Amino acid sequence: MTDTYKHKGLRKQLVETIRNKGISDPEVLRAMETVPRHCFFESSFLKYAYDDKPFPIGSGQTISQPYTVAFQTELLKIQKGDKILEVGTGSGYQACILAELGAKVFTIERQRALFDKAIKFLPVLGYPQIKVFYGDGFKGLPAFAPFDKILVTAGAPHLPDSLVSQLKVCGILVIPLGAYDVQAMTTITKIAENKYEKLEHGAFRFVPMLENKAKD
To answer: Helices 26-34 and 66-76 meet at what angle, rounded to 10?
Structure first.
């Protein structure tokens, strides 16, 4: 899929929208302006690609609202070279934003159809460095831990101990916490091996994060 001047212009408008909503990190805004969101949409839905709204991508999942992607990314305080675990690959859009910021991205997806699509599509789009895994996000990727940062892109009913244990000391975990339709965007900053600081950053809506499941 091509990235035309029209698409680039629409991305500039989208970036101005999320800037006006409070996103201020220039690198996050640059990444949002760089990654072609329309490439993650089926051709019949391209007209919605640069709306600041979530959109269904199949398997009961969505591509997150751009503002939400930017908000979570900003909370991570990414430094170039950070090793990041993303729980919930979905379309792969968020993983590309993280990679665009210079992070080493490990992403895990429990829906087989979405995993199969992402592992083939991301290299074609220009992000072969993103490592995509199929499995249960609650378990994380202990074989590749520890991580500088961890990002969860689904609403978790509770804080998974396994993910906290895979976070480096001084690392940050960004996770929407809540068992119902609305979650509290939460940062967990690991202060010591068995101590962390928890802060909430407002209400958001995510599809639920399901435990002990990886679906074919």
So the answer is: 140
Tell me the domain boundaries of the chain.
5-204
Positions marked catalytic: 64
- Per residue in 172-189, pLDDT (tens digit) is 999 999 977 899 999 999
For the chain, list the strands marked E by DSSP: 55-58, 61-63, 83-87, 104-109, 131-134, 147-152, 167-177, 183-192, 195-204
CATH number of 5-204: 3.40.50.150
Per-residue pLDDT tens digits for 80-126:
999 999 999 999 999 999 999 999 999 999 999 999 999 999 999 99
What is the tens place of the pLDDT at every residue in 12-21?
999 999 999 9
Residue 6 vs residues 125, 130, 180: alpha-carbon distances, Å: 18, 27, 39
- Position 209 scores a pLDDT of 83
Q: pTM surpassing 0.90?
A: yes
DSSP, collapsed to helix, strand or coil, labels residue 186 as strand
Sign of the torsion angle spanned by Cα atoms 3, 29, 188, 52 = negative
Q: DSSP assignment, residue 52? A: S
pLDDT beyond 60 at 215? no
Residue pair 166/146 in contact (Cβ under 8 Å)? The answer is yes
Host H or E run for residue 53? none
- Which residues on adjacent β-strands are paired with residue 98? none
